[in-house]
Structure formats: structure tokens, C-alpha cells
Amino acid sequence: MKQENIIEQEMYRRAIEFIPKRYTKGWGGVAIIHSEDDQYFTSVSIDTANSSVDLCIEVGAMCEAHKYNVRVTHCLCVVRDDENSPFKILSPCGVCQERLRFWGTDVKVGITTPDNTLKFVTLNELQPHHWTNAYPSEELEHYHK
Known about the structure:
hydrolase, globular, alpha+beta, EC 3.5.4.5
């Protein structure tokens, strides 16, 4: 099995094992981020009374990667509607795509598919017409680590 596939399978395994532990009943979701030095960071969304201040599921894991100053290589978000529902993979929202681009356009993200299979694509594949294409790459290099 290719190294990339091993990482992706491990991320999915960690996600589906974590959700029932953290969310025994009802909705549940988790993000798993893999870093270049082979660490895995896990995060969940923050529950608040005011949904306008909620953060995406991936944000906590991204902050952990920043805290340890490691390059993110993969990001996966998995949810379920309730304890009897199948797991679903969610593509990162546009804001999280922008956040993940900090580590470059080759970061791989799990995406939503019609048959809910585990599939990863690079941010560049996910957003081939990204606004940064209007600028020479050397002008943007200081934003990407």
C-alpha cells in the first residue's frame, strides 16, 4: 500500500474511533490533521450558545500544527448525524481551504463524494481557479511555509 494511502486510512480510522467516544449520542464530528513529521492532530467544533461564534471542526487541529510549527500534509473531517447514522466525509469549507493554504497548495484534503468513499485531493485540485493564481508565486511564497 502506498504511503499516502496508509496515512489517509489511518486518519479515517482515528476519526471513526474518536467520534463515538466523544459523542456517545446524537451528532458528532472530528477533524484529523497529519503533519510532515508524522504527527496526527485531532479537533472538534466548539459548542456555543451563539452559533455565529462557532469555529470549523478543523481549526483546533490547525492551531496545534501552528503551535508546534509543523507543516500540514493532510486534513480530514468526518461527521455523523447521530449514533445510528453512517459516517460522512466533509470537504473543507472555503475558509478552511484558505487556512490550509498556509502550508501550500499540495496539502491533501478529504472530500465529499457521492458514494462516501475515502478520497483525498490537493487544495490545488479542489480549487484550480483560486484567486492567488492572479499573482506570481514568488509574491506569495512568504505566506506559505
